[in-house]
């Protein structure tokens, strides 16, 4: 059987469009809810709330950040103590609604600011970072206000779980040496893994149990089976794949 397909940025965008078009008939809210739930479940599988209860959830202004907000809410439901950091909050209606949902859970949010003092303080009182800053549309260089925050997160010494693509990486070329680019221990690819993470050596999960067979077969994604009722499935490590 052919291995799972690692997809380009262009194909990832096309599949997103098809998921929310006639072929998939999903709304953005549905996809974001399922993606965020998968991210929360992956973090919980690797970093238990008994040992890593305090999660710093870092959210960008786009759909990646929306996934992070959904994950923060679910982590709160799971019994974690999330704190949200949004250097630049999203302006779209669905993003604002996700913020309100987190507020209703009494999940604290750091003030958006170029001053990273509050972020530095939050890092000191956190056990793990959920990285949902940049999506697959990221292009260097890293601009303000992220340029000050990203190196701080990279040097934090905390374990990092990245959503879809580690922040600072190119979606197709991978780690291209951007200053402050994150090097997570855990990656949660959504829909299908992107070409840029082929060299990722940490624990790698696939999330987003929503791709219909029609689209999976059309694009030859060769997705693995999700176990039981899980929203995630762990992919083989690069080391084990090389042995096969």
TrEMBL record:
It is an enzyme of class 5 (isomerase). It catalyses: (6R)-NADPHX = (6S)-NADPHX; (6R)-NADHX = (6S)-NADHX. Residues 12-223 form the YjeF N-terminal domain. It is found in: Cytoplasm; Mitochondrion. It comes from the Eukaryota. (6S)-NADPHX binds at residues 63-67, 135-141, 164. Transmembrane segments: none annotated. Catalyzes the epimerization of the S- and R-forms of NAD(P)HX, a damaged form of NAD(P)H that is a result of enzymatic or heat-dependent hydration. This is a prerequisite for the S-specific NAD(P)H-hydrate dehydratase to allow the repair of both epimers of NAD(P)HX. This is NAD(P)H-hydrate epimerase. It comes from Sphagnurus paluster. The lineage of its organism: Eukaryota, Fungi, Dikarya, Basidiomycota, Agaricomycotina.
